[in-house]
What does this fold into?
Amino acid sequence: MRWSEFPKWGKWAADWAARYHAGLRERPVRAQTAPGEVAAALPAHPPETAQPMDDIIADFETIVMPGITHWQHPRFFAYFPSNATPAAVLADNLITAMAPQCMLWQTSPAATEMETRMMDWLRQAVALPAEFHGVIQDSASGATLAAVLVMRERALNWRGNAEGLTGQPRLRVYASAEVHSSVDRAIWISGIGQANLVRIPVHGPRRGMGIAALEAAIEADSKAGHLPAGIIACTGGTGTGACDDVAGACAVARRHGLFTHVDAAWAGSAMICPEFRDLWAGVEGADSVVFNPHKWLGTQFDLSAHFLRSPDDLTRTLAIQPEYLKTHGADGVINYSEWSIPLGRRFRALKLWFLIRAHGLEGLRQVIRNHVTWSRDLAERLRAAPGFEIVTEPVLSLFTFRYAPPGADPDATTEALLTRINDDGHIYLTQTRVDGRYVIRFQAGQFDCTEDDIDAAYRTITETARNLEED
It folds into this structure.
């Protein structure tokens, strides 16, 4: 296809996107294809000659679309949202058309300078202190890995990159069992090793790690000749919405000279609402904080906001400056490729600029407040429904429940209920385990979700449970 043909197909794509979003409630949320079905419809060998766009589009509709799980569906209540607002999609279209590689200031000054400003807008929106500086990472996983690498280098007095870990003391990092699995991966990739990720027991309604137990573990490791490096706290953990005592963790870190990273990948977006900030009280004492606007704020994947108290520690850990990557004649500029693990960078700040201007912070706050209110109302309705048990109370818009009618095995019955709900396709939910018990997670977060969609979730859950019991 040539650029001269692009307007025709670009208009088709825009019209298709509008039709797609308007008709999402008529589609099953989760893909209904069987394993291997899509692959079987794709030719085994690539074409040798060009094929008409009409044929490609037709195959897109018949092969691809049946195998898509619709993350933009208003009744997507699984995992966490991965939203795509029209303003951000429009910005992404422009980014894709320009296709700039924004690794250095000089390779696109507008991208670098807008990133600096947009991250400061976000900093203000969530009320982080002015000494925090932000960078857009690809994901919270990438930000957490960067933070763990800084922990490693600081603990080793900046010798890890140069000398490796052989012969060094065993580094130790501390977190609860409620943190995301990306923490485990960061520990692997950094070379610290799974055995040195110390799990602190959780307690209380917020399922946060015990601060006394945290300090005891650090002191025991120090006496054993290990080298404590850092603490990873979570706000709004993926399984149940667990929230650590961030202030307490930061206080322990200060006493022992450790680096603290706060993973608020999902819940951090809600901190634009002042009434929810108690969930990460004390965050101003952290060294590193991450949350994902590509979840709850409305920018599509990938756009993760990473804030650091001392960017110099990050660049000292990650920056490499061969001659071909130096920016000459422009003192004081930021090259964000030195703040992240990948060298290449997209112009992701443009999505934030479009989004925030198109909705305003108050418009975004209202979306989040609605989701929280509706989810809490649903939890109360399920609590009152026969056979249902709320296992973990709502944290923002996330709670867990199970179906335990008298005489039934709660784990087996809850799993059977979830399977039948997801196979039906009207809504989409996921599972986790809480203290060994099999439970269903519910979270509201899709940008176009309405109170009617929450009502539909209640009807689907309770009617499916009744049908299951009758069977």
In short: Residues 176 and 200 are 5 Å apart (CA to CA). The first helix runs from residue 6 to 22.
